[in-house]
Amino acid sequence: MSGLFLFCRPGFEGECAAEMQDKSAQLGISGYAKAKPDSGYVVFVTYQVEDAVTLHERLAFAQLVFSRQWFIVLAMRNDLPVTDRITPICEALSALPGPAADLLLETPDTNEAKELSGLCRSLERPLARALEQQNLLQRQGAPDITLHICFLSATAAYIGYARSANSARWAMGIPRLKFPPQAPSRSTLKLEEAFLCFLDETEREELLHTGMTAVDLGACPGGWTWQLVRRHLYVTAIDNGPMADSVMDTGLVTHLRVDGFRYAPEAPVDWMVCDMVEQPIRIADLVARWIERGWCRYTIFNLKLPMKKRYLEYQRCLALLDERLRSAGIGYRVRAKQLYHDREEITVFLARD
Length: 353
Ligand code: SAM
What we know:
Blueprint: E1 2-7, H1 13-26, E2 31-35, E3 41-46, H2 49-58, E4 69-77, H3 86-93, E5 102-106, H4 111-114, H5 117-133, E6 145-153, E7 156-163, H6 188-198, H7 201-207, E8 213-217, H8 223-229, E9 234-238, H9 245-248, E10 253-256, E11 269-274, H10 280-292, E12 296-304, H11 310-327, E13 332-337, E14 345-352
Parallel strand pairs: 5-6, 8-9, 8-11, 9-10, 11-12
Antiparallel strand pairs: 1-3, 1-4, 2-3, 4-7, 6-7, 12-14, 13-14
Helix pairs in contact: 3-5, 6-8, 10-11
The chain binds S-adenosylmethionine (SAM).
């Protein structure tokens, strides 16, 4: 079989499949998506492997919202002998275009699949050695290719590869972030992941530094504000609820108990971040207003998707933003992703040119 293997949040297989179907149709490549509810992955089947390669080359991974990680499938083996899984995996990888520089052993992000992580760990070294002996893996000097082996069970795996520069940096698309003990809420990890996902190292240095200013709409108890103050930004935190002392004690935060939809900054700020739980289209409208009026240059916000028609709702919000900013003659770039630390929501980064 040939196609693309896409990791997604369990429960979002329909959105991941619909998005891939749309993108491949836009590129004029036929195929169909196979998705099992709550499996944590989608396989987009193409009629020939060249089509999967073309999709992987022409489609920027960063454009995919509902996919956490992806790779080109060279084979699906559901008969891996428990006594020797390595030989058939190496055979499947003999169709590689050249040696790869890295190897990832992965599973979908489900509780059942996580039980396979021990198997992945125990197989990693011997498999790497066998691949090196066959010149399929060459840690230094090889092109920017990563091998992916995704185990669905102890005897079944999808086997393939991806260009590292056009895929997620982390195995399964899951960054391993440690919860900082001083942060007041776990949602702090969402903003940290968003900064890692949407900005490269240089951008993080240039766009998040001492003396910059930010507004955090729906800030309490302060997990997102904490990410901003630890980078020494001045933050105006908007929320009727209480802010944690650990954040207020930094001296960098002004807390205003006002409605985030009515608040207007006295002077433009660099960043507006927004984690208010509201209808996504209201948030998109609010963000459009902030950008149109020049109140901020950069924004990161969440869209809490409804239970039904989530993909359509995301498209509706992005279309609203596009229409409003284009008609105001404002250039911008936008990226959206369902981050690992997101649940029913997606996170969006927008920068005014
Ligand atoms: N980002 C926060 C953190 O990391 O700690 C968590 C935010 S919590 C998910 C959503 C917050 O939005 C709540 O504290 C709620 O009071 C606030 N909120 C909801 N609607 C609001 C509004 N119209 N104006 C201001 N805050 C609002």
